[in-house]
Amino acid sequence: MKMLLKNNRKNVNGLNNKGFTMLEMLFSFSIFCMVASFLPLFFTILFSQNSIDARIQQMEWELFINQLKKEVQASEFSDVVNGDLTLLYGEEIIVYQQYKNLVRRRVDAKGHEVVLQNVQEIRFEKRNHAIWIEVNNIFGQRESRAIHMFIGDEF
Protein backbone atom coordinates (compact mmCIF):
# COMPACT_ATOMS: atom_id res chain seq x y z
CA MET A 1 0.00 0.00 0.00
CA LYS A 2 2.84 2.38 0.82
CA MET A 3 4.33 1.78 -2.63
CA LEU A 4 1.13 2.81 -4.36
CA LEU A 5 0.92 6.09 -2.43
CA LYS A 6 4.58 6.92 -3.09
CA ASN A 7 4.08 6.60 -6.88
CA ASN A 8 1.08 8.92 -6.81
CA ARG A 9 2.98 11.50 -4.73
CA LYS A 10 5.78 11.71 -7.28
CA ASN A 11 3.27 12.79 -9.94
CA VAL A 12 1.64 15.30 -7.66
CA ASN A 13 4.94 16.82 -6.60
CA GLY A 14 5.60 17.87 -10.23
CA LEU A 15 2.73 20.37 -10.03
CA ASN A 16 3.12 23.76 -8.42
CA ASN A 17 0.75 26.36 -7.04
CA LYS A 18 2.07 29.32 -9.04
CA GLY A 19 -0.78 29.26 -11.60
CA PHE A 20 -1.03 31.13 -14.89
CA THR A 21 0.84 34.46 -14.65
CA MET A 22 -0.18 37.74 -16.21
CA LEU A 23 2.92 37.69 -18.43
CA GLU A 24 2.04 34.25 -19.80
CA MET A 25 -1.52 35.41 -20.43
CA LEU A 26 -0.35 38.49 -22.37
CA PHE A 27 2.04 36.40 -24.44
CA SER A 28 -0.71 33.89 -25.30
CA PHE A 29 -3.14 36.69 -26.14
CA SER A 30 -0.62 38.38 -28.48
CA ILE A 31 -0.09 35.11 -30.37
CA PHE A 32 -3.86 34.66 -30.62
CA CYS A 33 -4.25 38.22 -31.99
CA MET A 34 -1.57 37.65 -34.64
CA VAL A 35 -3.21 34.45 -35.82
CA ALA A 36 -6.67 36.05 -35.79
CA SER A 37 -5.45 39.02 -37.85
CA PHE A 38 -4.58 36.70 -40.76
CA LEU A 39 -8.01 35.03 -40.86
CA PRO A 40 -9.78 37.73 -42.95
CA LEU A 41 -6.97 37.63 -45.52
CA PHE A 42 -7.18 33.84 -45.62
CA PHE A 43 -10.95 33.89 -46.17
CA THR A 44 -10.64 36.58 -48.86
CA ILE A 45 -8.18 34.47 -50.81
CA LEU A 46 -10.22 31.33 -50.24
CA PHE A 47 -13.51 32.78 -51.51
CA SER A 48 -12.20 34.98 -54.35
CA GLN A 49 -11.32 32.21 -56.81
CA ASN A 50 -13.81 33.51 -59.41
CA SER A 51 -12.24 36.95 -59.41
CA ILE A 52 -8.80 35.39 -59.96
CA ASP A 53 -10.17 33.39 -62.89
CA ALA A 54 -11.79 36.53 -64.31
CA ARG A 55 -8.48 38.44 -64.08
CA ILE A 56 -6.66 35.59 -65.81
CA GLN A 57 -9.36 35.66 -68.50
CA GLN A 58 -8.75 39.40 -68.97
CA MET A 59 -5.01 38.84 -69.45
CA GLU A 60 -5.72 36.00 -71.89
CA TRP A 61 -8.06 38.32 -73.83
CA GLU A 62 -5.34 40.97 -74.15
CA LEU A 63 -2.83 38.40 -75.35
CA PHE A 64 -5.33 37.03 -77.87
CA ILE A 65 -6.05 40.50 -79.26
CA ASN A 66 -2.36 41.38 -79.58
CA GLN A 67 -1.57 38.16 -81.44
CA LEU A 68 -4.61 38.48 -83.67
CA LYS A 69 -3.81 42.13 -84.44
CA LYS A 70 -0.33 41.20 -85.67
CA GLU A 71 -1.69 38.41 -87.83
CA VAL A 72 -4.55 40.46 -89.30
CA GLN A 73 -2.31 43.40 -90.12
CA ALA A 74 0.29 41.15 -91.76
CA SER A 75 -2.28 39.19 -93.80
CA GLU A 76 -2.97 39.89 -97.44
CA PHE A 77 -6.73 39.40 -97.23
CA SER A 78 -9.28 39.04 -94.46
CA ASP A 79 -12.96 38.19 -94.47
CA VAL A 80 -15.70 36.98 -92.16
CA VAL A 81 -17.31 33.82 -93.52
CA ASN A 82 -20.13 32.09 -91.61
CA GLY A 83 -19.15 33.87 -88.42
CA ASP A 84 -15.51 32.75 -88.66
CA LEU A 85 -12.57 35.04 -89.35
CA THR A 86 -10.62 33.93 -92.42
CA LEU A 87 -7.18 35.33 -93.23
CA LEU A 88 -4.92 34.77 -96.24
CA TYR A 89 -1.33 34.82 -95.04
CA GLY A 90 1.07 33.89 -97.85
CA GLU A 91 -0.29 30.62 -99.19
CA GLU A 92 -1.92 29.65 -95.91
CA ILE A 93 -5.57 30.11 -95.06
CA ILE A 94 -5.96 30.82 -91.35
CA VAL A 95 -9.37 30.51 -89.72
CA TYR A 96 -10.37 31.69 -86.24
CA GLN A 97 -13.55 30.03 -85.03
CA GLN A 98 -15.45 29.11 -81.92
CA TYR A 99 -15.31 25.48 -80.90
CA LYS A 100 -17.41 24.67 -77.82
CA ASN A 101 -16.19 27.14 -75.15
CA LEU A 102 -12.88 27.84 -76.95
CA VAL A 103 -11.67 29.99 -79.80
CA ARG A 104 -9.34 28.02 -82.00
CA ARG A 105 -6.96 28.83 -84.82
CA ARG A 106 -6.69 26.48 -87.78
CA VAL A 107 -4.22 26.68 -90.65
CA ASP A 108 -5.35 25.17 -93.98
CA ALA A 109 -8.22 23.37 -92.20
CA LYS A 110 -5.74 21.46 -90.03
CA GLY A 111 -4.86 21.66 -86.39
CA HIS A 112 -6.58 22.90 -83.30
CA GLU A 113 -4.61 25.68 -81.63
CA VAL A 114 -6.52 27.10 -78.67
CA VAL A 115 -6.10 30.88 -78.56
CA LEU A 116 -8.87 31.85 -76.08
CA GLN A 117 -10.69 29.83 -73.41
CA ASN A 118 -13.92 30.16 -71.40
CA VAL A 119 -15.81 31.81 -74.25
CA GLN A 120 -19.57 31.76 -74.28
CA GLU A 121 -19.90 33.52 -77.63
CA ILE A 122 -17.60 35.24 -80.12
CA ARG A 123 -18.59 37.33 -83.13
CA PHE A 124 -16.40 38.62 -85.92
CA GLU A 125 -17.73 41.44 -88.09
CA LYS A 126 -16.33 43.67 -90.83
CA ARG A 127 -17.08 47.37 -90.32
CA ASN A 128 -15.45 50.57 -91.56
CA HIS A 129 -12.19 49.07 -92.86
CA ALA A 130 -11.76 47.11 -89.64
CA ILE A 131 -12.57 43.77 -88.13
CA TRP A 132 -14.63 43.99 -84.94
CA ILE A 133 -14.40 41.21 -82.39
CA GLU A 134 -16.98 40.85 -79.64
CA VAL A 135 -16.64 38.19 -76.94
CA ASN A 136 -18.91 37.17 -74.08
CA ASN A 137 -17.08 34.96 -71.62
CA ILE A 138 -18.44 32.60 -68.99
CA PHE A 139 -17.69 35.12 -66.20
CA GLY A 140 -20.28 37.56 -67.58
CA GLN A 141 -17.69 39.93 -69.03
CA ARG A 142 -18.17 41.42 -72.47
CA GLU A 143 -15.16 42.52 -74.48
CA SER A 144 -14.95 44.11 -77.92
CA ARG A 145 -12.12 45.44 -80.01
CA ALA A 146 -11.53 46.72 -83.53
CA ILE A 147 -8.50 45.72 -85.56
CA HIS A 148 -7.76 48.08 -88.44
CA MET A 149 -6.06 47.00 -91.66
CA PHE A 150 -3.11 49.11 -92.77
CA ILE A 151 -2.08 47.11 -95.84
CA GLY A 152 -3.68 44.37 -97.87
CA ASP A 153 -7.30 44.10 -98.90
CA GLU A 154 -9.86 46.80 -99.29
CA PHE A 155 -13.21 46.22 -97.75
For the sheet with most strands, the description reads:
5 strands, antiparallel
Residue ranges: pLDDT <50 for 5 or more in a row?
none
Gap from first CA to last CA: 109 Å
Instruction: Tell me the fraction of residues in β-strands, as a range.
Output: 35-45%
Q: If helices are DSSP runs of H or I spanning 4 or more residues, what is the number of helices?
A: 3
In the sheet with the most strands, the strands line up as 1-2-3-4-5
Radius of gyration: 33 Å
Roughly how much helix do the residues carry, as a percent range? 40-55%
Along the chain, the helix and strand elements come as: HHHEEEEEEEE
Throw out a few tags for this protein.
8 strands, alpha+beta, 5-stranded antiparallel beta sheet, 155 residues, rod-shaped, 3 helices
In short:
The chain is of the alpha+beta class and 155 residues long. Helix content is 41%, strand content 36%.
Textual characterization of the structure:
This protein has 155 residues and is of the alpha+beta class. It has a domain at 51-148. Helix content is 41%, strand content 36%. The protein has 3 helices and 8 strands. A 5-stranded antiparallel β-sheet has the order 1-2-3-4-5, covered by helices on one side. Strands 6-7-8 form a 3-stranded antiparallel β-sheet, covered by helices on one side. It is rod-shaped and about 90 Å long. The termini are far apart. 12% of the residues are buried.
Fold topology:
Layout lengths: L1 H12 L8 H26 L1 H26 L2 E5 L2 E6 L2 E8 L2 E6 L2 E7 L2 E9 L2 E8 L4 E7 L7
Antiparallel strand pairs: 1-2, 2-3, 3-4, 4-5, 6-7, 7-8
